[in-house]
Amino acid sequence: MTSPTSERQGESAPTAATPEPAGPPAGAAPQAAGATPQAAGAGVSAEGRPVSAEGPFVSEELSEEISRLVDERIAAQGADVQPARQMMTVAGWSLVLAIPISAFASLNAGVLGLGIAWLGIVLVNAVAATVIRRS
Question: Which of 35, 56, 111, 117 meets the CB 3.0–4.6 Å disulfide criterion with 105?
Fold first, then answer.
């Protein structure tokens, strides 16, 4: 069966018996004339890893070693997250409590009271940071 477009142009549509020419996949590197995909090193393993004619680009042992090192580094960094989380909690609560403290201090003692209140807030945060870093 032909399509209306191909009939107007005087061409017949390709049939199921006519194989389509196989071209390189989109984004594939250009190959030398007469080179086969195996000779050029193109290919993908069943797991989706790129392979060359000689085998995989990265050996399984090297791949496992890299994964192990990355896991160790992530675990080591996870230990550093806890003090930062504690300090953020202290800083957050000090800011929340600073609002009413500032209001009471400024109403009852003026600017001097406000300054003393904020000095106390800064000192509480400094002591908390020192204690958290040491632990």
Answer: 117
Instruction: Tell me how far the alpha carbon of residue 68 is from its chain's centroid.
Output: 18
Residue with tokens 């790129």: 50
Q: Report in angstroms the alpha-carbon separations of 64 from 4, 50, 68, 69, 70.
A: 57, 16, 6, 9, 10
Beta strands 51-52 and 55-56: pairing type? antiparallel
Q: Is the pLDDT of residue 33 over 70?
A: no
pLDDT at 106 over 50: yes
Residue with tokens 């069966």: 1
Q: Which stretch of DSSP H or E encloses residue 92?
A: helix 60-134
Across the chain, mean pLDDT equals 74
Of 133, 131, 134, the residue nearest 84 (C-alpha): 133
Extract the runs of DSSP E, i.e. beta strands, from 4-109: 51-52, 55-56
